[in-house]
Amino acid sequence: MKKIIFDFNGTLLNDVSLALxxxxxxxxxxxxxxxLTLMQYRDIFTFPIKTFxxxxxxxxxxxxxxxxxxxxxxxxxxxxxxLKLYDGVKDLLLKNIEKGYQNIIxxxxxxxxxxxxxxxxxxxxxxxxxxxxxDIYAESKMHLxxxxxxxxxxxxxxxxxxxxxxxxxxAKEMGVSCILISQGHQSKQVLESxxxxxxxxxxxxxx
Length: 207
Known about the structure:
Elements: E1 3-6, E2 13-14, H1 16-31, H2 38-44, H3 49-56, H4 65-79, E3 84-85, H5 89-98, E4 102-110, H6 111-120, E5 129-133, H7 142-150, E6 158-162, H8 165-174, E7 177-181, H9 188-192, E8 197-199
Parallel strand pairs: 1-4, 1-6, 4-5, 6-7, 7-8
Antiparallel strand pairs: 2-3
């Protein structure tokens, strides 16, 4: 049975504009710097989020990373009701179900926040497994991928779909195929450095 693993933020959920808004709020509040453009954001975004914050200019010998992270998540959650799925996501998930595939989420989003968002978007029941991390600090989801793959018998029937180099790194560590979608948190140019299939939208996914 094929299993399709999806990242959530930036892959299924169109939250790039909100992420840019929140990060610009943070760099104005803490650093008093000029706001990022969307292109700048997508070129420097990375995991772990602490490293990304350092790229923005945060010195965590000066600032408290947990305080900055809490500011981020509080602002983000105050606007999350406005978020939508990317076009084509529901159709792809339903098509997978019709084909007898399993839909899985492996995300660096905190587990309960992830579950709540999926329920609000009315797609929670489309997934066989929903795997998020235990805190809000978005360090990595590598451990989730490693634990998941230990239980699988056939890696050849698993595809990982994401929007970041980190998704590719997780897929590679798991030993599974990877497709990256270039409308998310990292630019197409950054994603193409991975050497895997890079598509422009969910409409192009054919599995």
